[in-house]
Amino acid sequence: MPTANVTIRQAQTPDAPAIADFNRQMAFETEHKKLLPEVILAGVNTMIANPAHGFYLVAESEGEIVGSLMVTTEWSDWRNGVIWWVQSVYILESHRRQGIYRALYDEVKQIASNDPSVCGFRLYVEKDNVNAQKTYSALGMEETDYLMFEELKAGLKYCED
Does the keyword section mention Acyltransferase (predicted)? Predict the structure, then answer.
């Protein structure tokens, strides 16, 4: 169960600096990448200002944001529905193992229950992040058979060298 006094809510513009900082910490913890602060803050602000891209949820305790996650969408022609991707998950280290991610994910599922076009949830996790993988499995998610590939446009700079 989450710690007492934790509130889950949709992120608003004033939350952007905290979310951007969480994203920077998460990228360094999981991939040892140092995201460019101005790029990640602009990205967070763009998402908050454009709900068609998706949304952020934040977990707040005693006036402090202690965790967040982002949801984006993917159209599935196989299912004639929308898959929600859970991304940019971060919980402050001092608040981990207290059910905060569970509360955030439960809120994602609750919001989706009001949208009949949503047919499921996906996320990706670093191969070595065993603790996160255990958490996702415990919440009913299953590992897939897919690998992920990407190609970024030349010249795109989002982290320090």
Answer: yes
